Structures are given as structure tokens and as C-alpha cells.
Amino acid sequence: VQLVQSGPEEKKPGESLRISCESSRDNFPNHWIGWVRQMPGKGLEWMGIINPADSETRYSPSISGHVTFSVDRSTSTAYLHWSSLRASDTAIYYCARRSRFSGNLAFYTAFDVWGQGTMITVSS
Amino acid sequence: DIQMTQSPSSLSASVGDRVTLTCRASQNIGTYLNWYQHKQGKAPNLLIYGASSLQSGVSSRFSGGGSGTDFTLTISNLQSEDFATYYCQQSYRLPRTFGRGTKVEIK
């Protein structure tokens, strides 16, 4: 399985943007897709997840209302959308497949397949 | 939100060393703890899930332990390809927060 993300973008504050994450496999509906942000010089930040089967979403409170997740099941593609970018959105954005694992004591979830990342630069 | 605190923030080590990284959760998360390796310019890589289960294809030099609030990632016989930043992530509750990372550098 591969996740292939769209290329880098340079945008101005206030502009809109949608980046993509295309899955290479037919089992796209079977795994939630997550989005993770890495701001310059910072660590990984969990943004949220979307269920490709029914488009159910879970957003981190820190970004809720500022971005929108969506999917196109016909093309096995997930999207991350901004209607009005801010300079603080400058970051690398990763999509990742969430898988479920059977462990010693319970079932666990983790991101086991990642896209290569999309660099977004927002500057006036 | 559950806060994840990693220590140290960075460390220097030599090839062949054994290093232990620590991650502490702000509340009891059982064994719902993942570890990732992240190299600059590349996608993160899942190492450990469920606090101690090794992801398929990951070297057995990596091992995880702990439960409740305190967790460790140990790298034995450190190799050149292991120099990277390591993140813990809790999978107990939304949002699935990451720690700030521990950067492992060459001494």
C-alpha cells in the first residue's frame, strides 16, 4: 500500500487550498485516514482522522473549524482543505493510514502507512 | 487532552550504544502507546504499538515497555540508520496526541 500526496504549495494568507492523498489499494474504505502536521522546527501534531467508508470525521480541537477533511471513494483519495489560509498554516502535512492491531492485551490503532508529506508555505 | 512528555529532548550516542528514551502520559493510558521514528525529509515510520509490540519489518534492536503513565523505547546496538527523532503517541483517547520527540544524534 502506498499513499501518494500532492506537491508543495506556496500560497498567500486568505487564499484557499486543497491537498490530496491518493491510496494505491482497493481497500481504501477499510482504513481511516489521518492527517498529521509538522510546523517548522516542531514535532508531529495529530490533526484528525476521516473514515473513507462514510466520511465520518474526528478533528483535533486545535484545528477544528479551520480545516476540512473529505474523501473521494471513486478515486481512493483523501483531501485536506482550507478556505482561508493563515501564515501559521506553514508546515509539512502528512496523511497516514490508521490500522488496527491485535496486541497482548487489547486491540490498538496506529498509523502504519504514511504519505511522503506536502510542504505548504503561506506568506504574503 | 492527554499530554505526552518525552525525555530527554535530545541525546548524543555512539554506534553500538544502548539508549533508552522515556515517554510519560498525563493520565493512565494503559498500554495504548505507539512509537514512531522520523528522519528529516522522510515520512515517519511506526516502530512499536501497544507499548511493546514490534511492528512487522522493524528491527528487533527496538523494544518498548511500560504501562499506565510511564513508557520506554530502548534501542540496542545503535546503528547509523537509527539516528533520527523518535515520537511517542497515545492511542487511548481523542485527540491522539504525540510527544514533542527525542532527537538521537551521533556523538
Structure description:
The complex is a heterodimer of chains A (124) and B (107). By secondary structure, chain A is an all-beta fold. Chain A has no helices and eleven strands. Chain A starts with a strand and ends with a strand. Chain B has 107 residues and is mostly beta strands. Chain B is built from no helices and ten strands. Chain B has strands at residues 4-7, 10-13, 19-25, 33-38, 45-49, 53-54, 62-67, 70-75, 85-90, 102-106. In chain B, the strands form two sheets. A six-stranded mixed β-sheet of chain B has the order 2-10-9-4-5-6, with no helix packed on it. A four-stranded antiparallel β-sheet of chain B has the order 1-3-8-7, with no helix packed on it. Chain A binds chain B through residues 34, 36, 42-46, 48, 58, 60-62, 94, 96, 101, 103-106, 108-112, 114-117, and chain B through 1, 30-32, 34, 36, 38, 42-46, 49-50, 52-53, 55, 85, 87, 89, 91, 94-101.
Concise structural overview:
Chain A is mostly beta strands and 124 residues long. Chain A has no helices and eleven strands. In chain B, 0% of the residues lie in helices and 48% in strands.
Order of helices and strands of chain B: EEEEEEEEEE
Main β-sheet description of chain B: 6 strands, mixed
Figure out the total of helices of chain A.
0
Largest interface: A-B, 28 and 29 residues
Binned, the helix content of chain A reads under 10%
Assembly classification? heterodimer
Overall pLDDT confidence of chain A: 95
The shape of chain B, in one word, is globular
Q: Give the beta-strand count of chain B.
A: 10
Work out the strand percent of chain A: over 45%
Low-pLDDT runs of chain A: none
Percent of residues in β-strands of chain B:
over 45%
Order of helices and strands of chain A: EEEEEEEEEEE
Mean pLDDT of chain B: 97
List the helices and strands and how they pair.
The complex is a heterodimer of chains A (124) and B (107).
Chain A: E1 3-5, E2 9-11, E3 17-23, E4 33-38, E5 44-50, E6 57-59, E7 67-72, E8 77-82, E9 91-102, E10 107-114, E11 118-122
Parallel strand pairs in A: 2-11
Antiparallel strand pairs in A: 1-3, 3-8, 4-5, 4-9, 5-6, 7-8, 9-10, 9-11
Chain B: E1 4-7, E2 10-13, E3 19-25, E4 33-38, E5 45-49, E6 53-54, E7 62-67, E8 70-75, E9 85-90, E10 102-106
Parallel strand pairs in B: 2-10
Antiparallel strand pairs in B: 1-3, 3-8, 4-5, 4-9, 5-6, 7-8, 9-10
